[in-house]
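FW: tagging you since you asked about this chain on Friday. Here's the raw sequence from the shared folder, copied in full. Didn't touch anything.
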Amino acid sequence: MSPLYQRLALAVLLSVPAPVALAADDRDPLESWNRGVFAFNDRVDRYFLKPLAKGYRAITPQAVDDGVTNFLNNLAEPSTALNAALQGKFKQSLADTGRFIFNTTFGLAGIFDVASSMELPRHDEDFGQTFAKWGAPAGPYVVVPFMTGMTLRDGAGMGTNAVFVLKWRNEPLDIGWETELGILALSIVDGRADIIPMEESMTAGDRYRLLRDAYFQRREFLINDGAVTSDPFLDDDFDDDADETMEPGTAEQVPESAPSEGAAEAL
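HL: got it, structure written out here
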């Protein structure tokens, strides 16, 4: 999957133009606990991860940074293709498999995104979306230490993805746990560095609720393939019976590598 911070950045982009609802959210019954963990994560980011990401940006040329992001995205393609198939999107799954093959071979292990120029756009599918398609309930929203907020369903999806990644990358390739940890660290730092330019959009308001509500909106967008039938951010401006529906499509409608991808959960 794409770096977690990039996903949150995309979520914030979808929600920033609209006002944030301040009413209690029944999807977040653990809000008091979650806020405490959120504050802890914020301190970890402020004193460790953010300075590290700033240093990474300072010493990494843009072309190299783009190549790293492409490489990490390419590693996520097998999971994307599998989840597309599990959701019955067989044509998309074949296209995602093609992306992985072309970028791995002609794109030098994915450093160059040659598949996009071949009209094979990148999609965003994960096990959390698959479980939702299968009818699994979302469960409560929980902020995880050293990570971010997610529903129990998406947490189970992340765990399933971790098992899948260990299977397909380690058993046939035998890359070792040291390399796997290196990839994870690079993913975290690269993802955090990519959203530094948009941090100013998160300086006002209740950041916890903004990011929580943006997360829910983003997940609905992905699960429904771009069709959002309810928008809590617009409740103050529209009647309760009105639905705000986005043009159906895929997550690729919002480019993941765009420099304007938003702000981070842990600023």
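FW: The beta strands are 141-143, 149-151.
HL: agreed, and Residues 1-22, 232-267 have pLDDT under 50 and may be disordered.
FW: great, closing this out.
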